[in-house]
Amino acid sequence: MQGILRFIIDNFVTVAGAAILTVFTARIIFNIKIDAKSLFLYAASFVAVSGAIVAVANYGLAKLSPSLAMIFRTVFTTLTSILLLKFFFGLNIFKGTISEFVYNLFLAIGNFIAIFAFRCFGIELKEIKSSLIYTIIAFAIINMMVIIMLYLIKTFKLFSCFPPEIKAKAYKNYLIYILLQFVIITLNFYYYIEFGDSADGVTSMISVTMLIVFLTFSIFYTNTFFRLEASNQELEYQKFYNQALQSIINDLRRFKHNYNNILAVFGGYIKNKKWCQVERYYNEICSEIGKVSFLDNLTSLNIKSAGILGLIMAKYEYAKKMGVDFRVITEGEIDEVKMKISEFCEVLGILLDNAIEAAKDSVEKKVEVFMKREERALTFIVLNGINEKVDVTMIYEKGYSTKGEGRGLGLGIVNDIVSKYKNVILNTCADDSKFRQELIINL
């Protein structure tokens, strides 16, 4: 009976537990969405594939070289976990690798603490392996330590600064950093198992404490690094948008300063009865007046975010080039949103670009933007004309586009960004002549 229970624990419970905790590690770090069905399928697939890998390692490679069997088992179970994370949860290879290494880092610490706890009671590793009760207790201690560390990460939001726009170099440095931590703790773990008998309890306690302090410091240091990276990028975006706002102010000043000159030119043409030149000059001035009137109206709106204001100004210029009427209406004060400003502007920018391009080919050639501040939400509505009905069930599929081959990535990016935020909702509807996107950000 004990043999059956041990087989179940070693080959099913332990492996399934590792799979589930790996998924929750990815969930906490990268905020992936999980559901019971996907989690069950992931765990079942991981158990099945890992079983095959262990069988090959133990009954094939182990006869040739135990070390080779261990390396084979470790490498291929890790690759299996990463690939299954991509298949079931859409996590890319790099993020899957980070999730796997973070989990294994915590697992190594859990193993270290479990062995240390047993040795405090005079129980050695061989006794743990030979006793079913000790095995169950060790399994509980190890996974409890992993859960505690994941809980601390979630509670203190230690990995909250994982924006996708952080440079690839920073990601690589972070992965190397995690790998080094894993190697250091693993080496300490094996040293403790091999030579722990010759070390006194005080030395072992100091070793464990220093490792925990090292890990804690490393996590906080890494988190601080990412916060600084994110802050630097936010400052770059804010700098760009402040420059856009300054451009608005300069255009207004330039036009008002040139007001008397414009009247003088009109007076000269009229006095000399140069009616053709009057008409041509009038058309030129109307274009500038339209821009300044829009900008003047824009500055009078309750848009307090420099980022949003700069984006609207840029899209007005784009719409003007496309021959599209671009209107903005606000209700309430539009201030900072509960999203990263870079990601919000990317989402709104894509929605506006799509609206302008669609309106260009429509009969109405108009885009309307409505911004509304409510007590607990900010709502952004983009309404545009279309020349044919759009299938709203397909537009968020990557690669799908009504614009032709090689397009259709924009709304896929929008969907990826929106799905990261629990407080953000994107509604889409369309009829034969109108297309409407509604972005709701709960505060």
Automatic annotation (TrEMBL):
InterPro entries cross-referenced by the UniProt entry: HATPase_C_sf, NatK-like_C
Residues that span the membrane, as ranges: 12-30, 39-62, 68-89, 101-119, 131-153, 174-193, 205-226
Gene Ontology molecular function: identical protein binding; kinase activity
Tagged with keyword Amino-acid biosynthesis: no
Keyword list, A-Z: Kinase, Membrane, Transferase, Transmembrane, Transmembrane helix
Keyword Membrane: yes
All copies of domain Sensor histidine kinase NatK-like C-terminal, residue ranges: 339-441
Protein name: Two-component system sensor histidine kinase AgrC
Organism field: Acetivibrio thermocellus AD2
Lineage of origin: Bacteria, Bacillati, Bacillota, Clostridia, Eubacteriales
